[in-house]
């Protein structure tokens, strides 16, 4: 956190000054470790085992906050008889379809009074394999399936099939010994962490978890966060001051670009993108959610208001509020799928904005081969980033795989205004919108994103004016009337914020509770409703902390409803009394008949703690006054997820796709439903036990340095920042340096089946070998900021990665993979391809190629090793697929048959 | 010892006035320098125990003061942990040192062995060798690491030798008690460079003149804090009236000692030290040498009166001898 979020880390330092204990779990000893009370070096990719160990510790030592757990979590819910856990199925949950490599979630549901399944569609995820997965998982994750029948419960938590007991059995194997064996964390160190966490949780105290992409970029990333959520729910650390799980986002307003998404499968406010097959009309789209208890029950109001914000007068009851104008998904349209479709010639044009995928994305070669096979490419950035210059100086030009004169892509590089040169808002990790005002006019031709898209839309609409083609209607019907000002006709950013906030007959709306499903309200993003309440831009509120309490309700505006702590109803007991005076935050005021406290209540302000819904109550009215988790249809925090995740209702430890270790827990080695793409340039290193696995005996992880910004476009081009970390380097322990003959400040070559890169060597004791499953495991650290452009050209670390993804959210496994490392620089030009081919094929005798950097002999045409054993029942997904015979793509970036 | 000497020197006329302004405790350097009604003396307290090594101070300083990049052409990886600035110089007025130490496992306590002094770079030939290898995973497990970070800066000494030796008056004592080089007066003679006991000031190669931290003299006049202190996210760099900073530092030191951080100590906070107390002082977690700071800095002009006295005496003796020689001839 100190490395990548130094400004946010000041609050950790402040907490530390006030006596907080700071524990840092990270494969490397970083700037954060330097300030932590305890640093726990961990094998990368094993956090579920570590967190699972903590869950087990809490349950075994009965350290859970029992009243909170019984009242506010789904611990008492009883599961169906046919649910089977991983212990019984050697690492699989019930419902696994080996052919489709997907789960049917039917058996994960609660047992209900009617005896039926609680799941709305039963085995929906398995219906059409992985291709159809769009955004319903995200939405279910927030809301849950509709439950017509009441689930059976056991408040004593003794029923063998209640969630509490299932959880206890599930995590029983995650002992300190197992944590030591899997994670390489000594038992006593683990126990110190467990003691610190449990001693600082309960009625009087709370513990917070902070994580960044070190948790998310795994094939089980979603389940990492789930494990933390289970732990925090058991300890009563959700919805209370000083608790929570903080997602530290990758850069400014990434939270904002999820809320108002740049994701293919979401509409603003986490509404799923409609599916072309499942959602022929608005009614079909909103139907699954409309039956739900909780705030998702108002799905139709949110959707109709969004449609009204976009298509205004044109959207009427009669035409389904222009629902047909919305684009629909037909399958996976994620960024990696799109890149493969570019290579296959199916995608012709590409906008790249505020991103540098040629450096920042996994398997950079795939990215660049895709870029080289487009008709046109628009890059808007501050400088000429590698994604715009790949055609003249990319790594594939050096190797001869691509030739500039044969790349047909027309590149439009357009200068973008920086954040100081435009008005707008940032939404930070705390869901806080903060307005920034333009300080200076952008120089030269640089323009804001708002300017660019507004005028692009205006010109397109002008060209289409008068068209009678129905496909042009969505564009022509758009409300595109933002006021502009100045010489450059800059649109008014505050007017856009007001549209996002929403308007009704009386002007700007104050809260999403005012949204209607009859077309009388318009709202661009329901969760942002209220940011412009009273016609005032509340994101621009800046009352200093000296003039308000530390909750600081008048600094910026937090969604939803300016609530600073989500689910803060949980800070009081079921009767509405604070759990403790020390952690007093929100409570029921019986005299005034309302919730009161320091924050905006996360419950209807006058809903009595004793309120119980009637049979026909719907949406939020269907939740009782003692149900804090108001986005869930049962009002409870989910220890067990009956729906919403595609890879299991409980987190369980799987090894990273590429791991030099087997799974200590089950025969199933890696996530059985992980997502990957078969492509000749996306081969996987053989995993543990497979032939050739010993060629890649080390583990590497990628990360950021304080001195640079992500893929480097904003830092490698600036002399002041570049000189602070002027060269790409790898971090290795003295022990690994000794083992492989690496010398401080000399060069090393790091190799995977994808490519080989070179880096200067930093030998440091901050990297430590770990004892894992009876052997010494070495980890290599690689900052991923460098690319072939800028003031300090260097090889991109992400080029080493394969595209293997978490099935829920399609995030790449960038934080754990296997590699080899050897002294010396990598081969140049076409020799690099030969060198990598030799690694892929195993060279002579299948062993690691001899240490002959620069002299790699051609091994092309050699037979690839057989299918890798990954422990999966079926080898056609996961890392079981056969690496391709090495071959060179032809000059247009496509593969030639050999 | 310093004080003794000073007293001794001070008691000896006719060098008394000179001695007082060159060494020993001095309550108010600004008045001493001729400012009739100066504002409070200001300075920095750099608390290295909360430094996270983000280097925002280095960048903010360069941005505000238009300091050129340290090394224009293809800056090189220095290999001294995460420090690629190396030292304070004409083009680096703040420098964050990174010191990696081996400590007994899990203590975070005092180092068993310092492996990196954060000192200026040895020649490349010596750097090429990797740090000595450890006994292996098992042996390594018995040890942890500690990573110290510290943002160094000009000390704005009470007795500033750079200022004393400057022949043009380019270096002067401001009304805030700080020491500043005036770019338009400096003639590039370079006397100030060896005079500094900390190696702070340097000459800009392509320019010839000497540059160093001004404690953002231009910002102070507008009621602003120096750029580095403003940028520091953890308040490791604190700016304010020197007296207040010393009190704050003593309180912080006491707190750290109570918390068991026995190795914490202040550096440069003592008005009785060799430079009469620094205007920019530090809280360190190890010996000053570990951070590349001299353990017992002394203003290099301290002995100037003595030297002059001895020179005068020698000249007198020589004159007497010459005279005697002539007289003796008679």
From TrEMBL, chain A:
Q: Does the keyword Mitochondrion apply?
A: no
Instruction: Give a GO cellular-component term.
Output: cell envelope
**InterPro entries reported for this sequence:** Asp_de-COase-like_dom_sf, Formate_DH_Act, MoPterin_dinucl-bd_dom, Mopterin_OxRdtase
Its annotated compartments are: Cell envelope
Q: Where is this region: Disordered?
A: 111-156, 842-898
The superkingdom of the source organism is Bacteria
Q: Which UniProt keywords apply?
A: 4Fe-4S, Iron, Iron-sulfur, Metal-binding, Oxidoreductase
Q: Where is the Molybdopterin oxidoreductase domain?
A: 3-382, 413-454
**Residues in Molybdopterin dinucleotide-binding domain copies:** 699-816
UniProt biased composition (Basic and acidic residues): 121-139, 866-877
Record's keyword annotation contains Oxidoreductase: yes
Q: Please give the Gene3D superfamilies that the UniProt record associates with this protein.
A: 2.40.40.20, 3.40.50.740, Dimethylsulfoxide Reductase, domain 2
Q: Which GO terms describe its biological process?
A: anaerobic respiration
Identify one Pfam family in the record: Molybdopterin
What's a single GO MF annotation on this record?
A: 4 iron, 4 sulfur cluster binding
Q: Which cofactor does it need?
A: [4Fe-4S] cluster
Return the similarity comment: Belongs to the prokaryotic molybdopterin-containing oxidoreductase family.
Q: Sorted alphabetically, which NCBIfam families does this protein's record hold?
A: formate_DH_Act (NF041513)
Q: What is this protein called?
A: Formate dehydrogenase major subunit
What is the protein's species of origin? Answer: Allonocardiopsis opalescens
From TrEMBL, chain B:
Q: Which InterPro entries match?
A: 4Fe4S_Fe-S-bd (IPR017896), 4Fe4S_Fe_S_CS (IPR017900), FDH_Electron_Transfer_Unit (IPR051555), Formate_DH_Fe-S_su (IPR014603)
Instruction: Tell me the GO BP annotations in alphabetical order.
Output: cellular respiration; formate oxidation
Q: Which residues form the 4Fe-4S ferredoxin-type domain?
A: 42-72, 145-176, 177-206
Question: What are the entry keywords?
Answer: 4Fe-4S, Iron, Iron-sulfur, Metal-binding, Repeat
State the PROSITE patterns in the record: 4FE4S_FER_1, 4FE4S_FER_2
A Pfam family annotated for this chain is: Fer4_11
Give the co-factor note: Binds 4 [4Fe-4S] clusters per subunit.
Query: What would you give as a GO molecular function for this chain, any one?
Result: metal ion binding
Q: Which CDD domains match?
A: FDH-O_like (cd10560)
Residue ranges for the region (Disordered) are: 1-40, 117-140
Subcellular compartments: Cell envelope
GO CC annotation: cell envelope
Put simply, this protein is called Formate dehydrogenase beta subunit
């Amino acid at each position: 956190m100190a490395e990548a979020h130094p400004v946010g880390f000041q609050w950790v330092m402040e907490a530390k000054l006030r006596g907080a204990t700071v524990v840092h779990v990270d494969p490397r000893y970083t700037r954060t470790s330097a300030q932590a009370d305890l640093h726990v070096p961990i094998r990368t990719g094993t956090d579920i085992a570590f967190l699972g160990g903590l869950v087990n510790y809490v349950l075994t030592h009965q350290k859970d906050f029992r009243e909170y757990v019984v009242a506010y979590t789904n611990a008492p819910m009883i599961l169906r008889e046919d649910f089977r856990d991983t212990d019984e199925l050697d690492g699989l949950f019930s419902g696994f379809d080996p052919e489709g490599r997907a789960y049917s979630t039917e058996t994960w549901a609660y047992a209900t009074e009617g005896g039926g399944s609680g799941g709305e569609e039963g085995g929906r995820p398995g219906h059409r394999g992985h291709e159809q997965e769009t955004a319903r998982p995200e939405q279910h994750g927030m809301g849950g399936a509709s439950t017509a029948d009441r689930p059976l419960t056991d408040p004593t938590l003794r029923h063998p099939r209640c969630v509490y007991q299932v959880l206890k059995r599930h995590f029983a194997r995650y002992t300190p010994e197992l944590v030591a064996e899997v994670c390489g964390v000594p038992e006593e160190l683990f126990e110190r962490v467990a003691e610190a966490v449990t001693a600082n949780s309960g009625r009087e105290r709370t513990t917070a978890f902070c994580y960044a992409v070190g948790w998310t970029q795994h094939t089980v990333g979603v389940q990492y966060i789930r494990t933390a959520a289970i732990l925090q729910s058991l300890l009563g650390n959700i919805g209370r001051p000083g608790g929570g799980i903080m997602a530290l986002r990758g850069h400014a307003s990434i939270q904002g670009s999820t809320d108002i998404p740049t994701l293919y499968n979401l509409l603003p406010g986490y509404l799923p993108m409609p599916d072309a097959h499942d959602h022929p009309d608005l009614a079909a789209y909103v139907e699954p959610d409309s039956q739900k208890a909780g705030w998702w029950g108002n799905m139709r109001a949110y959707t109709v208001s969004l449609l009204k914000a976009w298509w205004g007068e044109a959207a009427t009851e009669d035409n389904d509020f222009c629902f047909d104008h919305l684009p629909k998904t037909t399958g996976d349209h994620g960024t990696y799928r799109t890149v493969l479709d570019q290579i296959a010639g199916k995608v012709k044009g590409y906008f790249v904005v505020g991103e540098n995928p040629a450096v920042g994305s996994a398997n950079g070669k795939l990215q660049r081969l895709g870029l080289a096979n487009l008709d046109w490419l628009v890059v808007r950035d501050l400088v000429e980033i590698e994604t715009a210059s790949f055609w003249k100086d990319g790594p594939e030009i050096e190797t001869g795989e691509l030739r500039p004169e044969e790349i047909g892509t027309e590149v439009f590089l357009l200068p973008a205004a920086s954040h100081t040169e435009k008005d707008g808002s940032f939404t930070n990790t705390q869901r806080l919108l903060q307005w920034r005002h333009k300080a200076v006019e952008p120089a030269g031709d640089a323009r804001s994103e708002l300017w660019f898209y507004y005028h692009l839309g205006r010109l397109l609409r002008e060209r289409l004016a008068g068209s009678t083609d129905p496909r042009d209607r969505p564009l022509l019907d758009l409300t595109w009337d933002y006021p502009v000002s100045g010489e450059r006709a800059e649109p008014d950013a505050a007017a856009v914020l007001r549209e996002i906030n929403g308007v009704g007959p009386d002007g700007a709306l104050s809260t999403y509770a005012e949204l209607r499903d009859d077309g009388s309200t318009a709202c661009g993003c329901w969760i942002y409703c209220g940011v412009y309440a009273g016609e005032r831009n509340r994101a621009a509120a800046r009352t200093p902390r000296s003039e308000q309490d530390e909750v600081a309700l008048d600094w910026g505006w937090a969604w939803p409803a300016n609530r600073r702590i989500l689910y803060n109803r949980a800070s009081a007991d079921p009767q509405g009394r604070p759990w403790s005076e020390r952690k007093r935050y929100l409570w029921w005021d019986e005299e005034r008949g309302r919730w009161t406290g320091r924050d905006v209540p996360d419950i209807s302000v006058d809903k009595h703690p004793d309120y119980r819904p009637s049979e026909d109550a719907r949406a939020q009215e269907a939740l009782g006054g003692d149900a804090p988790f108001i986005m869930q249809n049962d009002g409870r925090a989910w220890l067990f997820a009956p729906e919403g995740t595609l890879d299991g209702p409980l987190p369980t430890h799987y090894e990273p796709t590429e791991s030099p270790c087997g799974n200590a827990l089950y025969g199933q080695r890696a996530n059985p439903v992980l997502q990957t793409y078969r492509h000749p340039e996306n081969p996987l290193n053989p995993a543990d036990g497979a032939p050739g696995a010993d060629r890649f005996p080390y583990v590497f992880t990628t990360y950021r340095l304080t001195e640079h910004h992500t893929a480097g476009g904003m830092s490698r081009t600036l002399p002041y920042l570049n000189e602070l970390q002027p060269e790409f380097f790898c971090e290795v322990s003295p022990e690994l340096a000794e083992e492989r003959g690496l010398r401080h400040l000399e060069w090393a070559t790091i190799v995977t089946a994808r490519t080989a890169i070179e880096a200067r060597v930093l030998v440091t004791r901050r990297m430590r070998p770990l004892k894992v499953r009876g052997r010494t495991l070495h980890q290599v650290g690689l900052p991923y900021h460098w690319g072939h452009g800028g003031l300090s050209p260097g090889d991109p670390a992400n080029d080493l990665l394969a595209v293997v993804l978490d099935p829920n959210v399609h995030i790449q496994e960038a934080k754990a993979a296997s590699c080899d490392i050897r002294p010396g620089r990598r081969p140049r030009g076409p020799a690099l391809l030969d060198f990598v081919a030799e690694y892929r094929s195993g060279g002579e005798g299948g062993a690691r190629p001899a240490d002959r950097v620069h002299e790699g002999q051609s091994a092309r045409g050699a037979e690839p090793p057989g299918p890798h054993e990954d422990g999966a029942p079926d080898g056609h997904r996961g890392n079981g697929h056969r690496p391709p015979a090495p071959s060179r793509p032809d000059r247009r970036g496509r593969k030639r048959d050999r | 010892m310093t004080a003794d000497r000073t007293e001794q020197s001070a008691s000896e006329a006719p060098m008394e006035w000179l001695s007082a302004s060159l060494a020993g405790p001095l309550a108010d350097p600004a008045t001493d320098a001729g400012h009739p009604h100066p504002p409070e003396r200001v300075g920095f307290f750099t608390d290295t125990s909360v430094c996270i090594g983000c280097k925002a101070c280095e960048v903010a300083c360069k941005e505000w003061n238009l300091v050129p990049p340290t090394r224009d052409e293809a800056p090189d990886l220095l290999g001294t942990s995460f420090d690629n600035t190396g030292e304070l110089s004409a083009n680096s007025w703040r420098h964050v040192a990174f010191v990696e130490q081996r400590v007994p496992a899990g203590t975070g306590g005092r180092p068993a062995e310092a492996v990196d002094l954060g000192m200026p770079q040895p020649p490349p030939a010596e750097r090429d060798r990797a740090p000595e290898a450890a006994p292996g995973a098992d042996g390594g497990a018995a040890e942890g690491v500690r990573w110290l970070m510290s943002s160094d800066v000009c000390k704005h000494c009470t007795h500033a030798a750079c200022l004393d030796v400057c022949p043009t008056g380019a270096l002067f004592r401001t009304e805030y008690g700080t020491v500043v080089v005036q770019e338009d007066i400096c003639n590039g003679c370079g006397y100030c460079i060896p005079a500094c006991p900390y190696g702070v000031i340097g000459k800009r190669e392509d320019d010839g003149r000497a540059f160093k931290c001004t404690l953002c003299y231009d910002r102070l006049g507008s009621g602003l804090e120096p750029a580095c202190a403003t940028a520091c996210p953890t308040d490791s760099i604190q700016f304010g009236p020197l007296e207040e900073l010393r009190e704050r530092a003593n309180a912080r030191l006491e707190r750290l000692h109570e918390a068991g951080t026995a190795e914490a100590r202040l550096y440069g906070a003592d008005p009785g030290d060799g430079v009469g107390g620094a205007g920019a002082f530090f809280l360190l977690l190890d010996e000053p040498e570990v951070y590349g700071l001299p353990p017992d800095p002394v203003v290099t002009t301290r002995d100037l009166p003595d030297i002059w006295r001895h020179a005068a005496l020698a000249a007198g003796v020589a004159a007497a001898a010459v005279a005697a020689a002539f007289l003796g001839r008679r």
